[in-house]
Write a structure and sequence with these properties.
With 194 residues, this protein is of the alpha/beta class. The chain has helices spanning 3-12, 18-35, 49-58, 82-88, 101-114, 143-153, and strands spanning 70-74, 93-98, 119-122, 132-137, 154-163, 173-176, 187-192. Helix 1 (3-12) packs parallel to helix 3 and helix 2 packs antiparallel against helix 5. The mean pLDDT is 93.
């Protein structure tokens, strides 16, 4: 297995089964072969699928000591981090949401290829209704702009983990990813609903 994936899994406290490792590898292959040419990820990202996209998605799992029962990936794009988390947390019900029908078609195809069950929805964040137990979002919009949506959507006691920029964002607590886990500097932000 790719060392970045191994480090990310250890950081998240996940000991994957052989079938989950195979699914991660299959998802990486699918991202290279289908999502990349279809525009689901950037044209220069092919060499960084494992180190950047899969490993980066895995670290979101570190926010939960126990996987939530239900989780929404809002602005999922090509299915990241939702597809990765869905295969690592098979008992968690996932809904992957994007406003692009073309990207949701890609996500549905990936789920079939990898053999995981997820729900999908074509919708904008403004049209979603809560309450939701858990939310993840990777690069949908700046964390400060996402905050009012999360406050509206999260159930009391729920949590959201989103990608962050290099500045402190009021309303979130930083979830640092130590240097050496990923091949790049990463900053995740967690918002807990009261």
């Amino acid at each position: 297995m790719n060392p970045s994936l191994e480090r990310s899994l250890a950081f998240a406290g996940i000991d994957p089964s052989e079938s989950q490792v195979a699914q991660l590898e299959e998802l990486g292959d699918w991202l290279r072969v289908e999502a990349l040419p279809a525009g689901g990820i950037g044209p220069s990202e092919g060499p960084r699928i494992d180190d950047r996209h899969l490993a980066d998605s895995i670290v979101y799992a570190a926010a939960w000591a126990v996987p939530p029962r239900y989780c929404w990936d809002i602005g999922t794009g090509a299915g990241l981090p939702g597809l990765v988390l869905a295969l690592l947390w098979p008992l968690c019900g996932f809904t992957l949401v994007d406003r692009s029908a073309r990207k949701i078609d890609l996500v549905r195809r990936a789920a079939r290829v990898v053999g995981i069950e997820v729900d999908t929805r074509v919708a904008s964040i403004g049209s979603l209704e809560g309450p939701m137990e858990a939310i993840v979002s990777r690069a949908l919009m700046p964390a400060i702009a996402l905050l009012p949506h999360l406050r509206r959507l999260l159930a009391s006691g729920g949590a959201a983990v989103v990608s962050g920029s290099g500045v402190d964002v009021p309303g979130y607590e930083e979830m640092p990813v130590p240097a050496g886990i990923l091949d790049h500097r990463a900053r995740l932000l967690m918002m807990r609903a009261k």
